[in-house]
Design brief:
The structure is a single chain. This protein is of the alpha+beta class and 315 residues long. It is built from eleven helices and 13 strands. The chain is 36% helix and 21% strand. α1 packs across α11. The longest helix has 17 residues.
């Protein structure tokens, strides 16, 4: 499967002005965001961009007030002080400051796994069956409705934060404890037996898929950010599968109101070969273990150029 990557639109780093690399914040994904942000900061500076680290939304507001920000590379992750839920996007839009990634609607919707799935279902796009559990709701009843095996996870967190794997009756008590500790709305989702696939989106191009093969039983936080034995196969599918995954990922991305860049996670059901949508990430990780840089490298885009391409979408 050949992929046409458009040429760079901007060649002069001065065209970006002063760039705030927005990282850290106060969400549950702060540490991952700091790692991502440091990588982006170093890459942009290496290409001559006047880039500066800004930790969290209050610091960004102060920098904008001081007149030291012309645009924002948003690499905050998560919600509640993360910048992936539409809040910082609304702030920047109101202030007229260009920023990377999806806008207010796409960011807010994609942060909420349940509402994203509802939109996909309305659009006729495939996603595993699920049940919504309101704060303090009956998680056991939702698991019984969906059936085992299943995942129970917060509707509005990422990076597998707060996710519980429920394979048998003995796992339910742990899942209930996780839900009680989280306190927010939970998603109980059918566990699809098959291959985990992710497709990075850059502009209107779907990059080659990555098939994730963790050493453990599932792709948890440790496998994503800490382990060195997780395998990433890129491209992850044969030619026909690549076309199908790219088309579905782009359709899901657009249906969720997203734009700019991001990542769509899917499962390929082993028994049927069906592709099923899991979620959209509107500010994906950019650490040494992250997936978007791996997919970009497959088509000859190194890490620094990837950061440049994301940033040039703001001009």
């Amino acid at each position: 499967m050949s992929l046409a990557v458009p040429p760079l639109r901007i060649t002069d780093p001065a065209a970006f002005g002063r760039v705030a690399v927005l990282m850290g914040g106060t969400s549950a994904e702060r540490e991952v965001s700091l790692q991502s942000g440091q990588g982006v900061l170093e890459a942009l500076r290496a290409r001559g961009v006047d880039a500066h680290a800004v930790d969290g939304i209050p610091a960004l507001v102060e920098a904008i007030r001081a007149g030291t920000v012309d645009r924002v590379f948003n690499i905050l992750h998560g919600n509640r002080g993360g910048g992936e839920d539409g809040v910082v996007q609304g702030l920047l839009q109101a202030l007229g400051v260009p920023y990377t990634g999806a806008g207010v609607l796409g960011s807010a919707l994609a942060m909420d796994k349940i509402r994203t799935k509802q939109v996909w279902i309305a659009e006729g796009l495939p996603t595993p069956r699920f049940a919504r559990v309101p704060p303090g709701g009956d998680l056991r009843a939702a698991i019984a409705k969906v059936g085992l095996p299943a995942f129970a996870k917060p509707s509005c967190e990422g990076s597998s934060v707060g996710a519980a794997r429920v394979v048998g009756e003995g796992d339910i008590a742990n899942a209930v404890g996780v839900a009680r500790a989280y306190g927010g709305e939970m998603l109980v989702e059918e566990m699809v037996v098959g291959d985990e696939i992710t497709v990075a989106i850059l502009g209107d191009v779907a990059l080659p898929s990555i098939r994730i093969v963790p050493a453990g039983e599932w792709y948890d936080y440790n496998a994503k950010y800490l382990a060195d034995d997780t395998q990433y196969l890129c491209p992850g599918l044969d030619e026909a599968g690549e076309r199908a995954a790219a088309g579905l990922a782009l359709a899901a991305f657009v249906a969720a109101g997203c734009s700019g860049w991001g990542r769509v996670d899917l499962m390929r059901e082993r028994a049927t070969g069906r592709l099923l949508l899991l979620e959209v990430n509107t500010a994906p990780g950019m650490t040494s273990h992250s997936l978007v840089p791996k997919a970009a490298a497959q088509v000859g885009i190194d890490y620094a150029e990837l950061c440049w391409r994301v940033l040039e979408q703001t001009v």
